[in-house]
Amino acid sequence: MTFSVRIAVRGYELDPQGHLNNVVYHQYGDHARWECLRAAGISIDDLREAGVGPVTLENTIRFHRELRAGDEVEVTCAFEWGTGKTFRIRQEFRGADGEPAAELTGVGGLMDLRARRLVPDPGTHWRALARTPAVLGL
To answer: CB atoms < 10 A from the CB of 134, how many?
Structure first.
C-alpha cells in the first residue's frame, strides 16, 4: 500500500528562481510521513505514551522538474522494512499531471526516548501502535 497526500505549493515557499525551495521538499516529506502515521492510527500522543519517537537518519532528494506557486503536488509515502534498527522510506513528488517532480529516499528509526537509543526491530513497535498497520506496509 502506498499512502499519498496532496499539497498546494504556496508563494512564500519559493526560492529566488521562482520554484519550490529545496528545503520545502523535506517539509512536504515530513508532512506526508506524519499524515501516513495518522492514517495508520498513530498519534503523537500515542508515541509519547509509548516512550518512543521517529527519527530521520538520512534523506536524499533527486529532483526531476520544478514545482511553482499554485502547483499541486502529490507526495507518496511507502515504508520498507528489513532487519535491524532502521527502515527505509520512499517518497515520490508528482505534479497534477502525474509527472514526477522529485524523489525522496530516507532512512529512519524509532528512538526509545528514555534510553536515547534506537529500538531493535522498529516494525514490531509500529505494528503494535497502529490501528491500521497495512498503511505502513506491515
So the answer is: 9
Contact predicate 113/59, CB 8 Å: no
The DSSP bridge pattern shows strands 117-118 and 86-95 to be unpaired
C-alpha cell at 68: 511553482
CA distance 87 to 89: 7
**pTM higher than 0.85, yes or no?**
yes
Contacts 24+ apart (CB under 8 A), 7-10: 7/31, 7/32, 7/72, 7/73, 7/74, 7/75, 8/70, 8/71, 8/72, 8/73, 9/67, 9/68, 9/69, 9/70, 9/71, 9/72, 9/73, 10/69
CA 94 to chain centre: 15
Encode the chain (138 residues) as per-residue pLDDT tens digits. 689 999 999 999 999 999 999 999 999 999 999 999 999 999 999 999 999 999 999 999 999 999 999 999 999 999 999 999 999 999 999 999 999 999 999 999 999 999 999 999 999 999 999 999 999 999
Q: 82: number of CA atoms within 13 Å, CB side?
A: 9
